[in-house]
Design goal:
This protein has 649 residues and is α/β, with parallel strands linked by helices. The protein has four domains: 172 residues, 3-Layer(aba) Sandwich (Rossmann fold); 212 residues, Rossmann fold, CATH 3.40.50.12780; 40 residues, no CATH class; 128 residues, GMP Synthetase, Chain A, domain 3 (2-Layer Sandwich), CATH 3.30.300. The chain is built from 20 helices and 32 strands. It has an eight-stranded mixed β-sheet with strand order 12-11-8-6-7-14-15-23, with helices on both faces. A seven-stranded mixed β-sheet has the order 5-4-17-16-18-19-20, sandwiched between helices. α2 crosses α3, α6 packs across α7 and α8 packs across α9. The longest helix has 18 residues. It is globular, with a radius of gyration of 24 Å. The two termini are 38 Å apart. Bound molecules: 5'-O-[(S)-ethoxy(hydroxy)phosphoryl]adenosine. 5'-O-[(S)-ethoxy(hydroxy)phosphoryl]adenosine (WTA) binds next to α12, β20, β26 and β27. 5'-O-[(S)-ethoxy(hydroxy)phosphoryl]adenosine binds next to α12, β20, β26 and β27.
Length: 649
């Protein structure tokens, strides 16, 4: 039987104690949500959240799509993640940190409380960071990044983490958009045994702009030499010891913004996705319990970077809210060799391992039998996220890493959804490889056409979420119109705008959902989202470029890669165009935006009205046959020339 057709039943030994242990149990929950949506969520909100003051309404839809959850409730996320665990988990490891070079640090919940309180005091008292102020984090994967996030939530500041792979220009844009007051960074950290630097990127960003920044707090990690701007830069390590070990937390409203996280869309500049306090933390915790089936003595490892939503929800907030031991890893899973991740699973007796298909493909390719060298018997659940997982990668993950004992939870979700949306439940869902399966209890997904008609089985359509859910995006920072336009303007059902994810999906006869991929102009490279418009805007900044079009090409390891067509200005001699444009992309966006293919073409295929025919360019990049009629193009002969160039690339 081929992997695609085979159905993998949950391991009965595991299912026995699972939080949701059968499809009956799943449907019982889901039907309750269908019958009494607010009652469903009320039950969990009352059970899971340490409310400091009661909410008065579960869901306020009066100003849709600006939904409000648990209105007027008061809570604090750092209390939910730390303080409330201190009675019975003070000496349990909260964060298990492993450095790139192999050193291990175990931080208990009591120690975490101390670090977070001190950092909160530092921000509040030394730098006057107040409730509602924005703090940008440009941090490596070290415990101080977690302290900084939680310290912000403690005092009600809104953090905006910028992934360390972004350039100074991208960092500056994000600082300016959020009008941040403080940047927290580190001199750098270690990767593959060598120090790398971050602080200089912050320096460059603040040379270019970022006027709102009053202070830069620098954690010393690798102690490499750095520039120091007197009056602006402050040494965390020197200041932190003298901070008071207790810091009363702010009472936050359910709907106060918890954090911003910038992500790419199909148009314009990156969007500051704004998440709320109560709804976000509730779902982060619930999905830890349902999808990862967290138990008291589990050790949970999500390999993401905290610069992405997966790191926010499943390294920090979800695991800590659930009182788990969460692993934080500074390095890369391929250093010193392809066994690093498996050695870590063995050494720390990791029970849930959560990573991206790209990483699985790379580890598979580098070491087919590598997992067999280690004792991986502690593993119970394997997870994947960020892009569709292909059958060979799935099979290897299941058989060789999981020893055919562990459920694979293929979790579909987005920066905007805050937490998992569609995923198998490890003790309940019979799994079809490559299928995200069913929406989680409480989540109402539908596959629709643009006019809101439900697609029949095996007909691909638009993946929509038709009811608001607690951890949904609340706004795009400073741009409510764009929020409505980006998510609630493409698809209407029964006269009401519904959330459209930008992904296409298809349901089979049994109701299983498979994600087809983005239907908008967003490329997914190694699980990183990038808007083609954003890449095009960056390339256009170069003086040599007359026209540019960015599309994606399938890539064996990365899933997709960036493919760029460039028309140069007349008279310009083309020399090493690829290197040049990639330099531009690195400086405008960052390393992650580097293109695999950059080809110079004499022109782009356009309609007579001047519109670029992207579908043709997409087909050419994929080396597919062109099915559209090209005779109506302004210059049909150009297509042949582009095809020739693309084949050479
Ligand atoms: C894609 C990451 C297939 C999808 C959490 C989505 C997936 C985008 C899956 C969000 C999956 C995420 N199967 N595709 N299991 N999970 N995606 O915002 O296209 O970085 O819209 O959030 O990744 O990427 P983001």
């Amino acid at each position: 039987m081929s992997t695609e057709k085979h159905i993998y039943q949950p391991n009965p030994k595991f299912a026995k104690d699972a939080a949701i242990n059968s499809m009956d149990a799943y449907w019982k929950l889901q039907n309750k949500a269908i019958e009494d949506y607010e009652g469903f969520w009320k039950g969990f909100a009352d059970e899971k959240i340490d409310w400091l003051s009661a909410y008065n309404k579960v869901l306020d839809e009066s100003n849709a799509p600006f939904y409000k959850w648990f209105t007027e409730g008061r809570l604090n996320v750092s209390n939910q993640c730390i303080d409330r665990h201190l009675a019975d988990k003070a000496h349990k490891t909260a964060i298990l940190f492993e450095g790139d070079r192999g050193e291990v640090e175990e931080i208990t919940y009591a120690q975490l409380a101390l670090h977070v309180n001190r950092m909160a005091n530092l921000l509040r008292h030394e730098f006057n960071v107040q409730k509602g102020d924005r703090v940008v984090l440009y941090m490596p994967m070290i415990p101080e990044a977690a302290y900084a996030m939680l310290a912000c939530t403690r005092i009600g500041a809104v953090h905006s983490i910028v992934f360390g792979g972004f350039s100074s220009e991208a960092l500056k844009d994000r600082i300016e958009d959020a009008e941040a007051k403080v940047v927290i960074t580190a001199d750098g950290a270690y990767r593959k045994g060598k120090p790398y630097m971050l602080k200089q990127v912050v320096d460059a960003a603040l040379e270019q702009g970022g006027e709102s920044i009053e202070a830069v707090i620098v954690v010393k990690r690798n102690n490499e030499p750095i520039e120091w701007v007197e009056g602006r830069d402050h040494n965390y390590n020197a200041l932190i010891e003298s901070q008071h070990s207790e810091c009363p937390f702010e009472l936050m409203d359910s709907e106060d913004p918890l954090f911003l996280l910038y992500t790419s869309g199909s148009t314009g500049k990156p969007k500051g996705v704004q998440h709320s306090t109560a709804g976000y933390i509730l779902w982060a915790q619930m999905t830890m319990e349902w999808v990862f089936d967290i138990k008291d003595d589990d050790v949970f490892w999500c390999t993401a970077d905290i610069g992405w939503i997966t790191g926010h929800t499943y390294i920090i907030y979800g695991p800590l809210a659930a009182g788990t031991t969460t692993v934080m890893f500074e390095g890369v899973p391929t250093y010193p060799d392809a066994g690093r991740a498996w050695k870590m699973v063995q050494d720390h007796k990791i029970t849930q391992f959560y990573t991206a298909p790209t990483a699985i493909r790379v580890l598979h390719k580098m070491g087919e039998d590598e997992p067999k060298k280690y004792d991986l018997s502690s593993l119970k659940i394997l997870g994947t996220v960020g892009e569709p997982i292909d059958p060979p990668a799935w099979k290897w993950y299941y058989e060789t890493v999981g020893n055919s004992n562990c459920a694979i939870v293929d979790t579909w979700w987005q920066t905007e959804t805050g937490g998992h949306i569609i995923s198998p439940l490890p003790g309940a869902t019979p799994i079809k490889p490559g299928c995200a399966t069913f929406p989680l209890p409480g989540i109402m997904t539908e596959i629709l056409s643009y006019d809101g008609v439900v697609k029949k089985a095996s007909e691909p359509g638009l993946l929509c979420i038709t009811k608001p859910w607690p951890s949904m995006i609340r706004n795009i920072w400073g741009d409510p119109e764009r929020y409505v336009k980006a998510y609630f303007s493409d698809v209407e059902k029964d006269g009401k705008a519904v959330y459209f994810s930008g992904d296409g999906a298809v349901q089979d006869e049994d109701g299983y959902i498979t994600i087809v991929g983005r239907v908008d102009d967003v490329i997914n490279v190694s699980g990183h989202r990038m808007g083609t418009a954003e890449i095009e805007a960056a390339v256009k900044k170069d003086d040599h470029v007359a026209e540019v079009a960015v599309v994606s090409r399938p890539h064996e390891l990365k899933g997709e890669s960036i493919f760029i067509y460039i028309v140069l200005k007349e008279g310009h001699i083309n020399k090493n165009i690829k290197e040049h444009i990639n330099e531009v992309l690195c400086s405008e966006i960052g390393n992650i935006a580097k293109a695999d293919h950059i080809i110079e073409v004499p022109g782009l295929p356009k309609t007579r009205s001047g519109k670029i025919m992207r579908r043709i360019l997409r087909s050419i990049a994929k080396d597919e046959e062109i099915t559209q009629d090209i005779s109506t193009l302004e210059d049909p002969s150009i297509v042949e020339e582009i095809i020739k160039k693309a084949r050479e690339a």
